[in-house]
Amino acid sequence: MRKLVVAFIVLAGFAGMIGLGALTMLISSSGGNQGWSNCSANLGPWGNGAGRGEQDAGSLKPESVGLAKRIIEVGKQRGLPPRAWQIAIQAGKTESNLANLTHGDRDSLGIFQMRPSMGWGTVAQVTDVDYQINKFYDVLLAVPGWEELRPGTAAQRVERSAFPLRYHRWEPMAAHLVSVEGNVPGISGCEDLPGSSVLAGQALSYAKAQLGKPYVWGAAGPASFDCSGLTQQAWKAAGVEIPKYSQTQYFQGGVHVPLAQAQPGDLVFWGYGRDPNGIHHVGLYLGDDQLLHAPQPGESVEVTKLWDGGQLLPTVVRPAADTPAPPGAVPAAGGAR
């Protein structure tokens, strides 16, 4: 708590409040964009960047690379877009470390840990590589709007895991494999990211209704909030689940977008040395250089001007649509419940 208070005192005393354009210029000229990766609208990575994706892919065993290639081949044969291949690779890496397992939680088997008892097929089928891959694609295609979901979210809709955020971990690796093994160059830019203006409006409506409520460390409503509790509950009110803590929200909360392209509802972050690993504060961007946030102990939820202080990150996070699976969805696979 003491560190948080000191940080805000320093920030408040640093050059006052300045506009978004000036902040962006400051960040560009200071070299503070280390650790920021451009988003790739069709493939990803929407997480930590291509460098980590290549490194993770390089650590795979030959069997795993072979299975990823087969996932891509089957996807191509079926005329499915690269996004589908990426989703399947992320699911396979998460569920089995891209291995055709003959064991798992309860009766979970194979690459995607499909359960015969839950209607995914016989034991022979759910351990047959091509059957598994085709079954995964069949279920994915039945997910409404899967093409517009973040890849890890789409994987979760198929697997229905009790740990929905874990699929995002392998976004960069899966994007790298699709690009290299599938011979699909990554597409830079954020112009095709899923639209979130309606959901953002709902999140901001909730947040504005909390104005004046006190900051309490660790609180997530309804009577008080800390910074990440406010952002989490605001987006939850729009039907979008994001993690609780500010640093986790940066890495797992949605799509990374350059600060200069920030839209209302995006999550804005501050970190010591502009380092994502040093994040200590988050707020909701309102547009026109305005921020809605829960500041620090002794203060209340407020709207203020965006500031820098040498700690504003050059990347914002845009939470992706992540509403709960609809009733009657396909039964769980691979440890999902």
UniProtKB/TrEMBL annotation:
Keyword Hydrolase found: yes
Coiled coil: none
Entry's Gene Ontology molecular function annotations: cysteine-type peptidase activity
Keywords recorded for this protein, A-Z: Hydrolase, Protease, Thiol protease
Keyword Ribonucleoprotein: no
Ranges for domain NlpC/P60: 197-324
Segments for region (Disordered): 318-337
One GO BP: proteolysis
InterPro entries referenced in this protein's UniProt entry, alphabetically: NLP_P60_dom, Papain-like_cys_pep_sf, PG_Endopeptidase_C40
Family: Belongs to the peptidase C40 family.
Protein name as catalogued: NlpC/P60 family protein
Source organism per UniProt: Saccharopolyspora aridisoli
